[in-house]
# Entry
Amino acid sequence: MKTIKFERYECEVCGESYETAVAARKCEDRPVTEDKGVKVGDEVLITGGDGQGLRCKVESIGIHSKQWGHYAAERYWHTVYLTGEVLGSWGHRQLSFDQYEVIAEGKRGDTK
# Structure
């Protein structure tokens, strides 16, 4: 039996892996976009998909890789997304930048 090892390179921005260091660096050079300044613990308003019109309490924030969005990878590649608990519901959501709005400071409040 012969062992074959493969070396992969990872973009340190989004975690996507590549066969060459050049490709990984090219990915890393893409800017992060659509950062709305949301932090873990903030509440946002869901504006698209399941739970539209409800609030979501942010539990984590990430960066989409080129594999997310499939049909429109260029639109989402290196954009900020968040995951959180949908308030007033039993579920959680992952929200891309075009599925939520920041709630103005004066409008935030305990919804439990």
Q: What stands out?
A: The mean pLDDT is 90. The CA atoms of residues 23 and 74 lie 16 Å apart.
